[in-house]
């Protein structure tokens, strides 16, 4: 498995290491990074959730107005 760079000190670290041996910075595993959860603190994800919600709300109102 190839080594990755520590985000704090840029030293080579094993991706299986819980922390960088040089500086102690916690190393996020690929499972933690790609969990698939929506991060609402990220402006792009937050905006996406708002847009999808407004589209769903608009669809409901469109269907109800046609009745």
Q: Any overview of this molecule?
A:
The protein has 67 residues and is mostly helical. It has helices spanning 30-33, 43-66; strands at residues 4-5, 12-13. The chain has 2 domains: 1-35; 37-67. It is rod-shaped and about 65 Å long. The mean pLDDT is 86.
Any key phrases for this structure?
2 strands; 67 residues; 2 helices; 6% strand; mainly alpha; two-stranded antiparallel ribbon; rod-shaped; 42% helix; 2 domains; single chain
Please summarize the sheet with the most strands: 2 strands, antiparallel
Structural class: mainly alpha
What is the count of distinct domains?
Answer: 2
Figure out the total of helices: 2
Give me a quick take on this structure.
42% of the residues lie in helices and 6% in strands.
What is the topology?
Elements: E1 4-5, E2 12-13, H1 30-33, H2 43-66
Antiparallel strand pairs: 1-2
């Amino acid at each position: 498995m190839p080594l990755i760079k520590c985000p704090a000190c840029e030293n080579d670290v094993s991706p299986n290491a819980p922390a960088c041996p040089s500086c102690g910075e916690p190393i996020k595993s690929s499972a933690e990074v790609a969990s698939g959860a929506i991060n609402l603190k990220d402006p792009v994800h937050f905006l996406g959730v708002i847009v999808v919600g407004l589209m769903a709300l608009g669809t409901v109102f469109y269907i109800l107005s046609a009745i």
